[in-house]
Request: fold
Amino acid sequence: AGSEGEMELPFTEDVQLTEMMRLRVQSLQQRGQRRQEGERLLLPHEAVYRLDFAEQELTFLHWNVTLGGPGRLSVTGISQLWTPDLTNLMTRQLLEPTGQFWRTAGEALDAPIKCLEADIQEFGERIAELAKVRKVMYFLFAFKEGAEKDSIRCSLMFKKNTEPGP
Reply:
């Protein structure tokens, strides 16, 4: 457990949203239609995850990522706030930088996961910024190079920004 005022926020799969986006891809394929200009379709190895902010005044501390085997996880933030009509995801709503985490085959499972540290630091800080103005944020998780969705856990550690008492 972290010290006082620290908070762990887990990424959880938004199964309904992922399913809606898969259906969108299927219906385009079945009808032989093209995607809208600038639309970003969900790929088979991707899923939509969300972070729910119970607290909105947060300082980013670090990522907690577990990969239960070799593979690569990439996490892309989405600036879009989904409305009940589930508008299509547009590429311009994908945030930079992305979080990249990977483990190569033959590596010991207790070896630290590799990542692009400057990127994940900047990304974490952006998430903390966005938390100030929204209660929920969405992400595209891509599971590549043999990464198994079920063996991956991903969360963020934040410090709550508490106002000093009287």
In short: The radius of gyration is 17 Å. DSSP finds two helices and nine strands in the chain.
